[in-house]
Automatic annotation (TrEMBL), chain A:
Keywords: ATP-binding, Nucleotide-binding. This is ABC transporter ATP-binding protein. GO terms for molecular function: ATP binding. Residues 10-241, 260-504 form the ABC transporter domain. It comes from the Bacteria. Pfam families: ABC_tran (PF00005). Belongs to the ABC transporter superfamily. Residues 510-533 are annotated as: Disordered. It comes from Jiella sonneratiae. PROSITE patterns: ABC_TRANSPORTER_1 (PS00211), ABC_TRANSPORTER_2 (PS50893). InterPro entries: AAA+_ATPase (IPR003593), ABC_carbohydrate_import_ATPase (IPR050107), ABC_transporter-like_ATP-bd (IPR003439), ABC_transporter-like_CS (IPR017871), P-loop_NTPase (IPR027417).
UniProtKB/TrEMBL annotation, chain B:
It comes from the Bacteria. Keywords: Cell membrane, Membrane, Transmembrane, Transmembrane helix. Its main location: membrane. The chain crosses the membrane at residues 6-26, 38-56, 62-84, 91-113, 133-158, 189-208, 269-288. Pfam families: BPD_transp_2. It is a multi-pass membrane protein. It is found in: Cell membrane. This is ABC transporter permease. InterPro entries: ABC_transp_permease (IPR001851).
Length: 533, 307
């Protein structure tokens, strides 16, 4: 791709960055030619984020050189990066919820033109790329895909020569991903280089023409993703071979274990989503998935099912025929309903407390860790130690503070704590969010084993691939409503994607990719129709 | 009621409202940047005593007002270093600043008790204040006009200027503002200093305009009302103006009721009226606003740049 004469758009030479106790980047070198889409691959903690921060001027490298269009450059701040022509779309969007789209765009520019002119330019850009976005809407009313478009427009207004995309698709529906790829391909065709960071390998295969793989802060391989398999790249990333999940249950058998019907709840002001008439049923031995883009009521659903939120909740939650809706969190736990929320640090676990104490908090009644109000310290410690061992949690022991564990290890502990209680029903949200591939496959296996033992498992996840791999049946949540349940075998990904994007009912399904589908008119914040690619 | 009396009452309302307005606008800007400074009362006292001391020593009340701003800004700088650089708890530090200001002002003010000072009185020529109605327009201390101009200026700054947009962005999401490349801490420092200067100016109004003498705890808790007014005003300068004048009216009613010999209640109860009104208004507002507050999302949270 790179012409013989042309210098690469971006070249990193021996970039190193150390933090106390960790080498985040160790002599990393690679090149991105002009107009290329280059992938940066690696597990969490491989050093991708640090590297990107160095390129965007948020951090400075300890050693090494960056050359841009052949000239060595020093990038001291994001402002200097933008001046060079480097744009960035953040993983966690750097947006201001209470402000309008236009204000957000203006904030991302160093010398924005006056309002009127800016609006004209934004509208031109949106038209030219076929992106739907209303400049005067406040950000908190927008879908995640629309939010990402703000970031992209923000970056494109500066006519970037290099666009960095940090995990851009982790929160998008399949259709939104396709649209994003269309935009990126067009940008690349126009000569803008793209540095694409992701761990979704099939996307990288579809989009990128070269890839650099990082592990432990070092470049371990470079490859052409189009010629690799997702599995081979994954093995390069983790530096070992991947284990296959054992066959999941056939799912047909089992009685109705967990039945939720007509569940409604008000959302938490100011930006919460209310649940509207959510119904689903999970059989014993079954894994039921709830797919959906973040912020569509998943957290509210978890809080209502766990019993954290009972004010204003209507509907019924039955476990083996017993009504739980009126019970407290503790009573639900005793009845056999275990839940694990999305946020592990600070919600599922108390970061400042030890693993023993954290085990006590949720398992005290079912595991008999306290009697007559007095903690049985020995039993608690033994239980925590058992969880640590059974789930191969890397920790110094039951006395280690929860906050000292890495995300993946803490998640293994939290999941282990719930699963070792041997619940009749387990409801988990984002069980493998931000967890490295090894731990993720361990956690998924544990859920399969739990279901195989006769429990009903509900997995709420944004990762559709995960749900397809794990679940027997799934439904999609959008703006607090749950779609009909679908069998995973023979499911239409397109249909799931449309449901995730907020298109209900069968009329608009398969084949249309949302081209003609309007919003359903029921949502408080109507979504723009997605243009076809 | 005669016109003269009505004008006199309205003039008193403006007088009572002005320091609340000025200090409140300062705190409003501080809070918009995401910092909660509960030390307004302390900074006002520092301003009041500094203004008094400088005005009596130099004989120039304007210098007093300027010195008041500088002194209170200096006090707010201590607060800023503690909560922004050292990331101390903002609530506790703000309370400490008030206690500190109370003590320091009493110490500095001790030699000045019982002296009177030249005041920052009406500035317009006499012929403009000959009739009651003209007096209502032109007969105020310059600080009353400063308060009104400041309202417009702060409203314009926050809603129309780019710097104001950035300041709001910092208060809305410090992490996002940092990621884009704005100097979060620097912006907050400037906001806190502005809030300090305004609190100082408001404090000097008590010692240079309302009562041209110094007494310990001269501001009598008005700094707290100014803070409450920020919430009352939903962080909007226009509503701050309305709120300050409304409270000015409540305070004036208390005085008038006393003067008119209206003593159905104990006088202490009347004196408590503005404070009761503060609590009532805050309770009503937070009950009415079930869909969330207009508060800046990062209000009171310390900011640590991501490693």
């Amino acid at each position: 791709m790179a012409g013989a004469a042309a210098a690469p758009r971006l070249e990193l030479r021996e970039i190193s960055k150390r933090f106390p106790g960790v080498v985040a980047n160790d002599a990393v070198s690679f090149q991105v030619p002009a107009g290329a889409i280059h992938a940066l691959l690696g597990e969490n903690g491989a050093g991708k984020s640090t590297l990107v921060k160095i390129i965007y001027g948020v951090q400075q490298a300890d050693e090494g050189e960056i050359a841009f269009d052949g000239r060595p450059v020093h990038i001291g701040s994001p402002r200097e990066a933008r001046a060079l022509g480097i744009g960035m779309v953040f993983q966690h969007f750097s947006l201001f919820e209470a402000m309008t789209v236009l204000e957000n765009i203006a904030l991302g520019m160093d010398e924005p033109p006056p309002r009127g002119e800016l609006e004209t330019r934004v509208r031109e850009l949106l038209d030219s790329y076929g992106l739907a976005l209303d400049p005067h809407r406040r950000v908190h009313t927008l879908s995640v895909g629309e939010r990402q478009r703000i970031e992209i427009v923000r970056a494109l207004l500066q006519n970037p020569k290099l666009l960095i995309m940090d995990e851009p698709t982790s929160v998008l529906t399949p259709q939104e991903v396709e649209q994003l790829f269309g935009t990126l391909r067009r940008l690349a065709a126009e000569g803008c280089s793209i540095l694409y960071i992701s761990h979704k390998l099939h996307e990288i295969k579809a989009l990128c023409e070269s890839a650099t793989i990082l592990r432990g802060g070092k470049v371990v391989a470079s490859c052409d993703p189009r010629e690799e398999s997702a599995r081979s790249m994954a093995e390069l990333m983790i530096g070992g071979s991947l284990k296959d999940l054992s066959q999941k249950s056939t799912g047909a058998a089992g009685k109705e274990r967990f039945v939720v019907s007509a569940l409604s709840a008000p959302g938490e002001p100011p930006f919460g989503t209310s649940l509207k008439d959510v119904s689903f049923m999970v059989r014993a031995g079954e894994i039921f998935g709830i797919a959906g883009v973040a912020g569509n009521g998943q957290n509210e659903l978890l809080a209502v099912l766990s019993g954290e939120e009972r004010a204003g909740v209507t509907g019924s939650i039955r476990l083996d025929g017993r009504e739980l809706a009126a019970l407290s969190v503790g009573a639900r736990r005793r009845a056999g309903l275990a839940t694990s929320p999305e946020e592990r640090n600070g919600h599922a676990a108390v970061p400042g407390m030890s693993l023993s104490e954290n085990a006590l908090l949720s398992a005290r009644s079912r595991m008999g860790l306290a009697s007559a109000g007095v903690v049985r310290a020995g039993a608690t410690k033994a239980f925590a130690a058992k969880v640590i061992e059974a789930f191969s949690v890397k920790a110094t022991g039951p006395g280690a503070a929860a906050g000292s564990l890495s995300g993946g290890n803490l998640q293994k502990f939290v999941m282990g704590r719930e699963i070792m209680e041997n619940p009749a029903v387990l409801v988990v949200s984002q069980p493998t969010w931000g967890v490295d591939a090894g731990a993720a496959s361990f956690i998924r296996q544990a859920m399969i084993d739990l279901a195989a033992g006769g429990a009903a498992v509900v997995v709420v996840s944004q990762d559709l691939d995960e749900l397809l791999e794990l679940c027997d049946r799934l439904a999609v949540i959008n703006e607090g409503r749950l779609s009909e349940t679908m069998d995973v075998t023979g499911i239409s990904i397109e249909r799931v994607g449309l449901l995730m994007g907020g298109i209900h009912g069968g009329a608009h399904a398969a084949g249309q990719a949302g081209a003609a589908a309007g919003h359903d008119g029921r949502s408080p914040a109507p979504r723009q129709p997605e243009p076809a690619l | 009621m005669s016109l003269d009396l009505l004008v006199a009452i309205l003039m008193t309302v403006a007088g009572a409202a002005t320091p609340l307005l000025i200090a409140g606008l300062g705190e409003l800007v501080v809070e918009k940047s995401g910092v909660l400074n509960l030390g307004v009362e302390g900074m006002m006292l520092i301003g009041a005593v500094t203004g008094f001391a400088v005005a009596t020593s130099t004989g120039v009340p304007v210098l007093g007002a300027l010195a008041a701003m500088a002194a209170a800004a200096a006090a707010s700088l201590i607060f800023a270093v503690l909560v922004l650089t050292l990331m101390a708890n903002q609530v506790a530090t703000g309370l400490a600043l008030t206690i500190f200001g109370t003590g320091v002002s009493a110490l500095i003010g001790a030699p000045f008790v019982g002296i009177t000072t030249p005041t920052l009185g009406p500035v317009f020529p006499d012929f403009l204040t000959s009739s009651p109605l003209l007096r209502l327009v032109f007969g105020h201390s310059p600080l009353v006009y400063v308060g009104l101009i400041l309202t417009v200026a702060v409203a314009f700054f926050l809603n129309r200027s780019r710097s104001g947009l950035i300041l709001r962005a910092v208060g809305e999401s410090d992490a996002a503002a940092h990621a884009i490349g704005y100097p979060v801490l620097k912006i907050r420092y400037l906001a806190v200093l502005f809030g300090g200067a305004m609190a100082g100016l408001a404090g000097s109004y008590y010692s240079l305009v309302l009562t041209p003498m110094w007494a310990e705890r001269l501001t009598a808790g008005r700094g707290w009302i100014a803070i409450a007014l920020v919430v009352f005003a939903s962080w909007k300068p226009g509503r701050m103006l309305a709120g300050a004048y409304l409270f000015g009216l409540v305070m004036t009613m208390e005085l008038q009721a006393k003067a008119a010999g209206f003593n159905v209640f104990a006088p202490e109860l009347l004196a408590a009226l503005p404070y009761v009104a503060t609590i009532a208004v805050l309770a009503i507002i937070s009950a009415a606003r079930r869909t969330g507050t207009a508060a800046p999302a990062c209000l009171g949270k310390p900011f640590r740049a991501a490693a």
